[in-house]
Design a protein that fits this description.
The protein has about 90 residues and is mainly alpha-helical. The protein is built from five helices and two strands, in the order E-H-H-E-H-H-H. The radius of gyration is 15 Å and the shape is globular. It starts with a strand and ends in a 6-residue tail after the last helix.
Length: about 90
C-alpha cells in the first residue's frame, strides 16, 4: 500500500526545528520513505515547492521530491468522494 503524504506533513518534516509533538509524524514519514511507500500529487509537490524562496534550495528540494512517483488520478477517483451512501 502506498501513502499519499499531504503538504502539512512535508512542511513539518522539512522544518529545521520541527515541533516536539511532530517527532512521531516525521519519524513515520522517514519510515515510509525508507520503505518506498510515499507517493505525491502534482498539487502537493507544487505547494511544497512554492514555500521555497532561494533558487538553490528550490532546486535541491525539487530534485529530492522527484524521487517520489506521482499518483495518477482518474475522473473516477475524483468522483468517488461525491457518492452519497444509500
Amino acid at each position: 500500500m502506498n501513502v499519499l503524504v499531504d503538504t502539512s506533513v512535508w512542511s513539518l518534516a522539512l522544518r529545521r526545528n520541527s515541533p516536539h509533538d511532530a517527532i512521531d509524524i516525521v519519524n513515520l514519514l522517514r519510515d515510509l520513505i525508507a520503505d518506498g511507500k510515499v507517493v505525491l500529487l502534482g498539487a502537493i509537490r507544487q505547494e511544497v515547492l512554492s514555500g521555497i524562496r532561494h533558487q538553490e534550495q528550490f532546486a535541491r528540494l525539487r530534485d529530492y521530491l522527484r524521487a517520489f512517483p506521482d499518483l495518477e488520478l482518474t475522473t473516477e477517483d475524483e468522483e468517488i468522494d461525491n457518492i452519497e451512501p444509500a
